[in-house]
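Researcher: I need the complex structure. Ligand is magnesium ion. Inputs:
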Amino acid sequence: MLTSLAQDLKLALDRISFARKAGLEPDSWQRDFLNSSSDRVLLNCCRQSGKSTMTAIVALHRALYHPGSLILCLAPALRQSQELFGKVLGFYRDLGRPVSPQGERKLSLELENDSRIVTLPGTEKTIRGFSGAALLIVDEASRVADELYFAVRPMLAVSGGTLMMLSTPYGKRGIFFEEWSQGEGWERYEVPARECPRISVSFLDEEKRALPARVYRQEYECSFEDTEDQVFSFEDVTGALDPVVTPLFGNEGIGS
Ligand SMILES: Nc1ncnc2c1ncn2[C@@H]1O[C@H](COP(=O)(O)OP(=O)(O)OP(=O)(O)O)[C@@H](O)[C@H]1O
Ligand SMILES: [Mg+2]
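Model: Output:
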């Protein structure tokens, strides 16, 4: 009895032990992420590095051990948020439903301890109405429309909840790129494919041969590439700005 209590206390306090209980041996960056108590996290990780899996573990841990938590899963499209939620549900079932379900549905899980995990559709009009989120997870964040991001942020306002955005890069545009490159207050994780023990060197060599160089850098090297239809590179444009040069029409001319 005492051992199982001690064991449960360990799982409540230590998310790495919880991940192991769910059958995963976390990689080095995953251990840092699971140990983190930051409430603003950006994961810029290559394809298949385990970013959705690890946030699913964090989401489930939060729901089980912090009664009354509202956890929201968001992605550019419902199908993608559903995939993240599916991972949460999978771990919940594998672990033998440690807290009983009150409602176990396709898009949400409600627990007896009043915690809820909800999948949000990727459209701005239908998501308003949630508030007091303890944890908001934005998966595939580089492809989430800015308006959607602006619409979900207030859901954390009163609760002081945690925001996690995870993605593989998708060009030098959008909110994920902006937050990654100049946002303040974020804890950042960058995980290229060569650091993922489940992706072999020979597979990466093959991908390198098969994909255009910029696509390879984006998918496997965490690189924010210039978009294809861009005439000038991001660096060219910012490099061309010279603070010494005075604009021809000055600022007071604008709009007048
Ligand atoms: N520490 C780990 N131990 C074993 N398997 C892992 C671990 N982390 C992730 N995986 C497995 O790696 C695969 C990819 O994980 P996941 O889907 O979370 O990656 P992702 O970064 O979200 O990928 P994508 O960019 O394609 O969405 C899954 O099969 C997952 O179970
Ligand atoms: Mg994923």
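Model: Summary of the prediction. The chain is about 40% helix and 15% strand.
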